[in-house]
Specification:
Chain lengths: 413, 291, 303
């Protein structure tokens, strides 16, 4: 027994040694050294590349398509920047990690990026969970993080160093409700949402706005991410005399609702969200998708040079259609590049520059400004699937009382 | 609406039965809870997809996928499960751990080889739906009914009218006595894998056609849901599995439509299972205890 | 750098604790537990709700979370008496899915938004990865001592005999069911404690943190390390939590194959080394014992 005890003690010591090993060599890792990474790199101007961190769900079976879309756009953004001369002559190096959609991995990655890798800024190309966990770590380390498309409200609430490139769910859903009731004249609405924060948040804000505008929410259904079957939900809605189905969900669910609505012969308008903004949606739903409206941030018909260039470049490089996830990641990099070109890599200066950005031209339209909490304010695009089974511009919602999240009354859900 | 929902639940239930049948056949003879059957389902869906898009022949896709995945099953039995079962085990769930490992590998292999994105079969009958009164029947459902019926008949014929089937039933009853009587238990086990993995592959293709999409995550829900179904069906009882599959399909559709479920539809199978096991610890149709 | 190392260490330590807890149920009592993450989650949510909603002291919340989880474990222990191994395995998988579904849907657990957890303070200083690591380390040492004591006592002997043959144990007059339930209580309670520590260390928990895949991860650690030993789960958990991080250093290429490697390792282990990498029959352990003996020149018997 003594032997066991001593083995145990030895093990405990070994573990603490492993843990302390790094601690002895570098400065104490108190959370109060915000300028560590940025300060170092500015001394070697023109020499070392500027590192930008990126993480996304690359190896998760259910989310890896989004992870890949994000990573490809990140690589594209960095490559194009370096080809055009980098940040005032300095190259940018992408440090990318796979979080496997796991919060503990995301925590490790965020610690690694902000300390060991010494990145100048971080882009989250992941979902709400990992981004939510990484945000406070970046905030504490004083490293700017731009979240590409995570919608959890607490991401930006982590602090002033955290920005979000996509609309908060509240903005998108309020815009959707306004469009559904005022432009499409919907009076009886059914909601088919994904059973995640992405779906519940948008559902709550949509409901609040639609009811305020005089429409009635006839039914609400929350479907688990893993559930493919929409047959019975649509059968139920068919018996309820509904004139619009609102779908705050992802492409798999949205495609199946589109198909079931046609097959079961419902005469309703369909309104999805940015979660349906993917080539995968169009491929799966095929002709059944025709007439589907979505709220999103990318207008594929935008004559804007940078938008068209991004779409062209992405297609040429990867032989795939770009989607909202990729475009948002690309924008997040563009924002960081712009900040670095102007003020260098000092995190305090970068934070200040980004927080005060005005009317910045991005792939997903004009970024008007960031709200006090750090969410991007930009027009909400309404896209419609046309006869050619592609997304096309249909309408734009740029009413500042809708697209600035600070103007939307908080809804408890 | 109720009639429509019953038809919906029949289609889903048949698909569940088809999906769980493979795992039932393997449990029936080897006593393994084979989560890796969901890997066979996933790989079958992808092989079927590639055959279908390159030849345009759906029948060929089914046969090719069922056969090749069935062979994979035999190879796995020879190299992994057989040797594990032959050794004395510390823990009864060791083969289940191996199955989990195989399933993890299959999902990741598909993601690496075939890409992360969705693939669509785009298989369509000339007519999408048949309307009978107020009820709509989707033609792909008819395919599910037909396929389930055909495969069950095939299964019945193989198990009851062939020598191999006799060996299978004898082995399922008691492997030691069967071996003592000169039954080739090895070939019975191989038959289990060909049929079991073949069924799973067919179910995978069917799912791919029904929802017109396959992704590397396709096997995740079936991997555990089919365990619940085979336990409800009495572990290793093919007929019980069909009844259990239909029952779960019916319960899911009805509960999710007429009640506000505090849990997702996919968890219904387990709630039913836990309740049934608490009342009757040997499952709905379990006659005997296998250890 | 050190913050990163402590982040990994804190995660690894929680998994060591989880592997040890599962090993009590699976390794010592021989019960087919496939849903350990459910109890990890029950402990995490209980402790987090206590500190966040009811403003209970962090340390008290940890203890209460542990006790409540143990209570839930007792119920499962009672159920397990009625079920044979395969049914128990599936039931525990089912419990895992149902619990995750409930976490994701109940308003008290923050539903799909998850739960924010304020990091506690220790002597006026907010606890970070470093403090949580040392806290978990202390708990691990205590748990190990407890297990050693358990194995020596009657309880341990009873569990060992249950594991080999329940009927034989019964014929010696050992109250099998009592010990089996005790193993479930202790095993789940430790998982619950790990949950409480995890929740407060991460500062945010969501239902997916306790998914079935996490149960599989814990089980893999026990099986790969060596079931039924103390060093096995510890080393297995260290290996599987540090290895993925180490692979990040190697290259993108390797890190992309992590799941494949993970699954493959699992299959190879149970196929060729069912006793685990560090089990008593493992060549690694035998080899190092041999080397150890050569060096010290003593012929001590293997533990």
């Amino acid at each position: 027994m003594k032997k066991l005890l001593s083995t145990l003690l030895a093990l405990a010591m070994a573990m603490s040694l492993v843990a302390c090993g790094g601690g002895d060599t570098s400065t104490p890792s108190d959370t109060s050294t915000p300028s560590g990474s940025g300060g170092d790199s500015s001394q070697t101007q023109g020499e070392d590349p500027i590192k930008i961190g990126f993480f996304g769900p690359l190896s998760s079976a259910s989310a890896s398509a989004d992870g890949l879309s994000g990573l490809q756009s990140a690589e594209l953004a960095v490559r194009l920047l370096n080809e055009s001369g980098g940040i005032n002559g300095r190259m940018v190096e992408l440090v990318d990690y796979d979080d496997a959609l796991d919060t503990t991995e995301a925590a490790n990655i965020a610690e690694r990026l902000t300390t060991a890798d010494g990145v100048a800024a971080v882009v989250s190309g992941s979902y709400s969970g990992p981004t939510r966990v990484a945000a406070p770590i970046c905030q504490a380390a004083g490293v700017v993080m731009v979240s590409a498309y995570a919608v959890h409200p607490d991401v930006v609430n982590a602090g002033e160093y955290i920005f979000s490139q996509s609309f908060p769910g509240a903005v998108q859903a309020t815009a959707a409700a306004t469009f559904a009731v005022e432009e499409l004249g919907a009076q009886r609405i059914a909601i088919v949402a994904v059973d995640l924060d992405f779906g519940t948040e948008q559902s709550a804000y949509f409901k609040a706005k639609a009811v305020e505008l005089g429409a009635e929410i006839v039914s609400e259904d929350y479907i688990a991410m893993s559930d493919n079957d929409m047959t019975s939900v649509v059968s139920k809605i068919a018996s309820e005399d509904v004139d619009l189905i609102y779908m705050p969900n992802y492409y798999g669910h949205a495609a199946e609702v589109c198909r079931q609505v046609v097959l079961q012969g419902l005469d309703v308008d369909l309104l999805g969200c940015e979660g349906a903004d993917s080539w995968q949606m169009l491929q799966t739903a095929g002709e059944y998708a025709e007439g589907l409206y979505i709220t999103t941030n990318m207008d594929r018909d935008d004559p804007n040079e940078s938008t068209q260039a991004y779409i062209e470049n992405y297609r040429a490089e990867y032989d795939m259609e770009p989607d909202m996830v990729g475009a948002s990641v690309y924008d997040a990099f563009e924002v960081l590049f712009a900040a670095m070109k102007e003020v260098g890599t000092d995190p305090v200066a970068m934070q200040e520059y980004i927080a005060n950005m005005k009317d910045f031209d991005t792939v997903t339209g004009t970024l008007m400004y960031y709200t006090s909490s750090g969410s991007a304010v930009k027009p909400v695009q309404i896209q419609r699937v046309g006869e050619d089974l592609q997304f096309h511009s249909y309408s734009v919602i740029d009413d500042i009382s809708i697209i600035d999240g600070d103007n939307i009354p908080v809804v408890e859900y | 609406m109720f009639l429509q929902l019953v038809i919906n639940s029949l289609a889903i239930g048949s698909l569940y039965a088809l999906t769980a049948m493979g795992a039932t056949l393997i449990y029936g003879i080897l006593g393994i809870l084979d989560i890796a059957n969901a890997g066979a389902y996933l790989i079958g869906a992808y092989i079927g997809y590639y055959i279908y898009i390159s030849t345009g022949q759906l029948v060929l896709a089914f046969l090719g996928a069922m056969l090749s995945v069935g062979l994979v099953g035999v190879v796995l039995h020879r190299t992994v499960y057989g040797p594990i079962l032959a050794k004395p085990r510390m823990l009864s769930i060791i083969p289940l751990v191996a199955a989990v490992g195989l399933f993890t590998m299959s999902s990741d292999l598909i993601r690496l080889l075939c890409g992360a994105g969705t693939k669509a079969y785009n298989f369509r009958f000339p007519v999408d739906v048949v309307r009978v009164g107020s009820v709509t029947i989707q033609t792909t459902w008819l395919l599910i009914f037909a396929l389930t019926a055909v495969l069950l008949v095939v299964l019945w014929v193989v198990l009851n009218k062939t020598k191999m089937g006799l060996a299978w039933r004898a082995t399922a009853e008691d492997p030691d006595i069967a071996r003592a009587c000169g039954v080739n238990t090895n070939s019975a086990m191989a038959l289990s894998y060909v049929l079991g993995y073949g069924f799973a592959a067919a179910a995978g293709i069917m799912t791919g056609i029904l929802y017109n999409s396959i992704t590397p995550a396709l096997g995740e829900v079936p991997s555990y849901k089919m365990l619940a179904i085979i336990v409800l069906g009495g572990l290793g009882n093919p007929l019980g599995t069909v009844v259990a599959g239909l029952l779960i399909g019916f319960a899911e559709v009805m509960l999710s439509t007429y009640t506000v479920l505090p849990i997702p539809k996919d968890a219904v199978a387990f709630v039913v299972l836990i309740i049934v096991l608490l009342i009757k610890p040997s499952g709905l149709f379990g006659q005997r205890n296998k250890v | 750098m050190s913050a990163y190392v402590f982040s990994i260490s804190a995660t690894a330590a929680v998994f060591v604790l989880l592997a040890l807890s599962l090993n009590i149920i699976t390794g010592y009592a021989g019960q087919a537990m496939m849903g350990q993450a459910a109890f990890f989650g029950i402990g995490a949510y209980t402790a987090a709700i206590l500190t966040e909603t009811y403003h209970v002291n962090f340390w008290l919340a940890l203890i209460l979370g542990m006790l409540f989880t143990g209570l839930c474990g007792a119920v499962l222990g009672l159920i397990s008496l009625r079920l044979q191994a395969d049914f128990l395995a599936i039931t525990t998988i089912g419990i895992n899915f149902v619990m995750v579904a409930l976490f994701n849907n109940m308003s008290i657990t923050g539903a799909s938004l998850g739960l924010n957890v304020t990091k506690p303070s220790f002597f006026g200083r907010q606890m970070g990865n470093q403090e949580f690591f040392f806290l978990t380390l202390i708990v691990i040492v205590i748990v190990c001592l407890l297990i050693v004591k358990m194995r020596r006592s009657w309880f341990g002997m009873a569990l060992a005999s249950i594991n080999n043959d329940a009927a034989a144990a019964r014929s010696f007059g050992i109250d099998v069911s009592r010990y089996q339930i005790l193993a479930f209580i202790i095993g789940t309670a430790i998982a619950g404690l790990a949950g409480g520590i995890y929740a407060h260390r991460m500062g945010y928990i969501a239902s997916s943190d306790f998914a079935f895949t996490v149960s599989i991860q814990i089980l893999s650690m026990v099986v790969i390390g060596g079931i039924g030993t103390i060093r096995g789960p510890i080393l297995g958990a260290l290996l599987l939590s540090v290895l993925p991080e180490a692979l990040r250093f190697v290259s993108d290429f390797v890190s992309d194959y992590r799941s494949l490697v993970y699954g493959g390792l699992l299959v190879l282990m149970v196929r060729f080394m069912p006793g685990g990498l560090f089990g008593s029959s493992s060549p690694i352990v035998r080899g190092s014992l041999w080397v150890f003996r050569k060096i010290t020149g003593k012929g001590g018997a293997a533990a």
